[in-house]
Amino acid sequence: MLPVVVVHGGAGHVPKERSEKATMGVSSAARSGYLVLQGGGSSMDAVVAAVSQLENNPLFNAGCGSVLNVKGEVEMDALVMDGKTLCSGAVSAVRNIANPVELARMVMDKTSHACLTAEGASMFARSMGVPEVPHESLVTEYSRMRWRKNLEPGADPVACQMGKMGTVGAVAVDVEGNVACATSTGGMMNKMEGRVGDTPCIGSGGYADNHSGAVSTTGHGETIMKVTLARLILFYMEQGHSVEAASDMGLAYMKSRVDGLGGVVTVDPQGNWAARFSSLQMAWAAAQKDMLHYGLYVGEHWSQNIQEPHSPHHADI
Ligand SMILES: NC(=O)C[C@H](N)C(=O)O
Hints:
Layout: E1 4-12, H1 16-38, H2 43-56, E2 76-82, E3 88-94, H3 100-110, E4 115-117, H4 118-127, H5 141-151, H6 157-164, E5 168-173, E6 179-185, E7 206-209, E8 213-219, H7 221-227, H8 229-238, H9 243-258, E9 262-267, E10 273-277, E11 281-288, E12 291-297, E13 302-305
Parallel strand pairs: 3-4
Antiparallel strand pairs: 1-5, 1-11, 2-3, 2-6, 5-6, 7-8, 8-9, 9-10, 11-12, 12-13
The protein binds asparagine (ASN).
């Protein structure tokens, strides 16, 4: 069954004109992660490779393409977790770097801490030789347009975001059966300066434990934190539920208990995987046994050989 990598490009409603690009983006990220696994790389290497590729894609709400805070600035959150050691690394409200997920991994590997925030995270990045990038290089016309719209009287940034843009994440199992997760985001549109969401919080934005599996989540952060969605799903798996059933149970609990919608990618250490969501859509892709699987709408599941070029399925191109 192993190895496998599963990625998501955020829960919500992807506008039609962006849907094909979104599935192409996640498919290509899954391919990159799978190449790492095939080359004998660890699940941690694979999830970081997949997520940094999505951070570099301006279509997604992470790295370049991040949503803007109320002041029109990019502040990003990211998390990695290693299921073998339960070590994790995170950054929150970090600015001016291209790949927060790589910095999160450095926090895990090079410090004795689990999370660095804001200026402290920037100082650490500098000390690690991570290049500082201009703020403008992270901002897209699309995110600026949405930010402006949300400044209008009566705008509802949370409802608007669940409509439009996505956090990115990945989970993987490597040939040794080690699991890992990574999640990265620009957060919620027009958020307060200094707001930290679910993404960098272990148990909420993600969790990985070789004894049960790994999960990466997406959705409204304040809601996900109320139910610690990633850990909740692993708890259901510890009770004997399959990756798919446990993912659905976690999402159903979040819906019934706090009226929250979201999405997850989940693996168990045997290489069983699931991509599930309660939102209208979630771009997802998985790579396993030289096959690429992907989808966007509820119930959609396309499969092809991983060597073949991505075939378009959505009518908007
Ligand atoms: N779209 C998202 O997944 C947003 C992210 N969970 C946050 O609240 O920061």
